[in-house]
């Protein structure tokens, strides 16, 4: 079969077939009397093998080795191709993400594009100072898409930079809370904690709703941050979790302060006191737990708390009894 016929049937151009010949990949078995290349069935089969291997991303050099070297181990080459393909996909995905973010910033001209690119690069810098300056610039209105800020804050380990990023997010407008909520489902504990910390500083109603949902999160750290944030907003749903934090000695001082702030009216105060008393009544509560619960009761106003403190002033644990007695005296002196 002549080269033109081979090109039509194989889909490989005559020019490429000549290139294969020059490289020694496919040398036609024969020549016509006029000197034209003449391909055998075996030659054509080799052409299809070459094209199949090229479709995997092999170079022509690697294709030649694969077809002609009896000792060639394809597994190593395939592993290398997998690695290179993953690297290429990661690079292309990063580029696509950057382009989308630049588009989301709605640049009016190339100056805006260049500024956004510079800020995105600064957010990914190894220098905490550069990252912090980029975050502060965003807070002042620089064109940084919220998706980039969310990604940056969820991965930020430096507390100063993280604080600047949270501030920038709080000033960035709507749509942030939903993006942060995705971080609550991260398999990485640190990312979950950063996500809930950011939500705690979001002023919108969507963030408050997400924080309420987070009270049932399987991660105790997430539940704790959500409860403290909701307590500061005056949301009574946080009370049971705050009581648990006192019992478990997890930010127990902050939790007790939040309970005190939530006990602003008699009904709320009695409800909180009743929960604390219930935990005191459980037999599993050890001495240190009972002391923390007593200290928490000290800041809860109302008759329920006072009656509980009166009972605790006769407690077998001297530390509990002394704390309760001192608190009662202070109440009487008011």
UniProtKB/TrEMBL annotation:
Organism: Streptomyces tamarix
SMART domains: EZ_HEAT, HTH_MERR
Keywords of this entry: DNA-binding
InterPro entries in the cross-refs: ARM-like (IPR011989), ARM-type_fold (IPR016024), DNA-bd_dom_put_sf (IPR009061), MerR-type_HTH_dom (IPR000551), MerR_fam (IPR047057), PBS_lyase_HEAT (IPR004155)
Ranges of residues in domain HTH merR-type: 1-69
Protein name: HEAT repeat domain-containing protein
């Amino acid at each position: 079969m002549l080269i033109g016929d081979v090109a039509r049937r194989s889909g490989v151009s005559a020019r490429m077939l000549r290139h294969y010949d020059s490289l020694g990949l496919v040398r036609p078995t024969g020549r016509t009397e006029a000197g034209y290349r003449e391909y055998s069935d075996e030659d054509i089969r080799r052409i299809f093998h070459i094209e199949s291997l090229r479709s995997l991303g092999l170079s022509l050099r690697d294709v030649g080795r694969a077809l002609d070297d009896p000792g060639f181990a394809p597994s190593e080459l395939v592993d290398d191709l997998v690695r290179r393909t993953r690297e290429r996909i990661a690079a292309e995905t990063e580029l696509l993400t950057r382009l989308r973010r630049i588009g989301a910033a709605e640049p009016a001209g190339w100056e805006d594009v260049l500024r956004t690119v510079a800020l995105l690069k600064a957010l990914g810098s190894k220098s905490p100072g550069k990252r912090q300056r980029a975050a502060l610039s965003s807070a002042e209105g620089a064109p940084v898409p919220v998706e980039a800020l969310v990604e940056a804050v969820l991965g930020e380990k430096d507390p100063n930079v993280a604080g600047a990023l949270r501030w920038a997010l709080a000033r960035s407008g709507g749509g942030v809370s939903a993006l942060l909520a995705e971080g609550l489902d991260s398999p990485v504990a640190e990312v979950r904690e950063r996500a809930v910390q950011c939500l705690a500083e979001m002023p919108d109603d969507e963030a408050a709703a997400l924080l309420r949902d987070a009270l049932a999160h399987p991660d105790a750290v997430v539940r704790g941050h959500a409860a403290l944030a909701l307590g500061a907003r005056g949301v009574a749903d946080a009370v049971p979790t705050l009581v648990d934090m006192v019992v478990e000695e997890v930010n127990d001082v902050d939790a007790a302060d939040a309970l005190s702030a939530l006990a602003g009216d008699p009904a709320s105060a009695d409800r909180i006191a009743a929960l604390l008393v219930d935990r005191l009544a459980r037999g599993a509560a050890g001495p240190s737990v009972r002391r923390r619960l007593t200290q928490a009761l000290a800041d809860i106003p109302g008759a329920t708390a006072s009656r509980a403190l009166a009972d605790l002033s006769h407690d077998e644990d001297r530390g509990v009894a002394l704390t309760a007695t001192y608190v009662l005296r202070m109440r009487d002196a008011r």
